[in-house]
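Changelog-adjacent note: as of this version, every example in the card shows the full chain rather than a window. The one below runs 291 residues end to end.
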Amino acid sequence: MNFPADAPFISRPAPRLAAGALALGVHVLFVLLLVFGVSWQTRHPEPVMVDLWETLPLVAPPAAVKRSRLPPAPVKAPEPVKAAPPPRPVVNEPPPPRAPDIALEKKKTETERLHKLQAMQVAEEKARSDAARAQAEAARKAHEKQLAEQRKRELLRQMEDEDLMRRMADEASASEARQVKLAEARAAAGKRQTEVARVVGQHRDLISAKVRGNTRLPDNLTGNPVVRCLVKLLPTGEVQSVRVTQSSGNVAYDEAVVRAIEKSSPLPLPSDRDARAAFVPELTFVHRPKE
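Full-length structure tokens:
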């Protein structure tokens, strides 16, 4: 087809089928390149849009103008130029879908799964660690509480033992003091009794000597007869009455002893109250002429 030299350039749209085939081929080639370069490729390449032409438009070369001496040919009126059809509006169509990168998607999925698995393992380890830490803390607190209670019980038991030992010591000390005091009292009582007995013996001897000095024995007395009399005395030693409780068998001797006791009034009594109690209010007097 010949086009006039001054005809305007009109673009012709390429058929869709051929363009789609070429675009698919380019994308397949691009996918193969991605598969081989996945080890160093870090990001997906941006989509590329390519406009393919089946044939290039032919432009007729300008006709050579030959100079001649011939008269110029009559100029024909130019044929009316048909208006070119308006260009189709360019629609930003989405790029054709690429073939899925199965290996890359699989690797990505596997990486995500590994990341999730690691995160789950980390979370489980943290949960186990937290649980073990909480359990150890609870066990430590329970052990400390048990030790505190045990120390408290031991302290109370120690205090009770110390209190018991103190009371026992006090009781032992008091008992020992009581024993000492009792022993001292017994010793003092024994000493007192000895002293009283000694004083009583001395005054019995004095009374016997005084009565014997006032006794007029009968002439017919033989042997060493014993006469026992009960003498009632006042605290001052004065004789209130004399009664024979055991006769010697010699009435004259008995009467002589009674008269001697009455004549010896007042009898010598000790000044000590306890010793005087052995003579007052009654005194048992035993008399033998040869003693």
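Structural remarks: The first strand starts at residue 227 and ends at 233.
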